[in-house]
């Protein structure tokens, strides 16, 4: 441009500078005051998130198909379970010391098939209807179990009577505000005794798509993720409740699944749809247990010697530390 054609800087004839555009800060759904509008916008945001996730998943699948055998291995997602802190008490199935303990512990007569389980199921004093129905349904799951009501008797008086009548285990269902909230499992005649906190109890009528009433066949027992010495002992306690020889003709299976120290109980029936496809049908009841203590010997709240007690402030410092 010529020297005289442009405006001289600083002489007041400069063209006006463009205004700066100020974008608003990151928008948050929580800032919306109207509750219905906020809920609607949140659902739209979740829907958009799902679409983006699905699109990314399809893109990665196409890339893997295009690469074929040269595709990199799939990344293993990080979970609390696979990041678990190593526990020095983890049981090695080939350990000679573990094998010796199993051959000499309180459950050895059961696993050697010298004793047949006989279970007494009772409740806290003056149980309500929901606890009574839960005990009755639990008795249909565990073969050779009998339900008796406390009638004010203390456990210290009940245990000698159970031993005299050849009961091998005692189960006590406690309740609070008409809801079952605790389970005491005592192996007779020499213990040990485990105290569990019970939650998420669902009776048969509360389970959707449930199957017909369970039969009298002895169910198969599945124990999952009981890997430490403590978990091994708890798993053997549960196994000792059921007869050693399952009757697979009944197609029933009782599962105790340990995940993050919560023990989930489910009772299913196998449904064979074809020679290759097998489905499961839940029969109920279902519940969740959390171990609170393991005591040597039979139940003794005052003078009992405890092998393990759950101390929340000391033991729950890490989410990746499990005890079972």
Automatic annotation (TrEMBL):
Gene3D superfamilies recorded: Probable brix-domain ribosomal biogenesis protein
Keyword Kinase: no
Compartment(s) of residence: Nucleus, Nucleolus
Keywords, in A-Z order: Ribosome biogenesis, rRNA processing
GO cellular component, one term: preribosome, large subunit precursor
Region span, Disordered: 1-28, 48-75
Any one Gene Ontology BP term: maturation of LSU-rRNA
Main subcellular location of this protein, as a coarse class: nucleus
Pfam families: Brix
GO molecular function: rRNA primary transcript binding
Domain Brix: 117-300
Composition bias, Basic and acidic residues: 63-72
Free-text function comment from the UniProt entry: May be required for ribosome biogenesis.
Name of protein: Ribosome production factor 1
Organism: Toxostoma redivivum
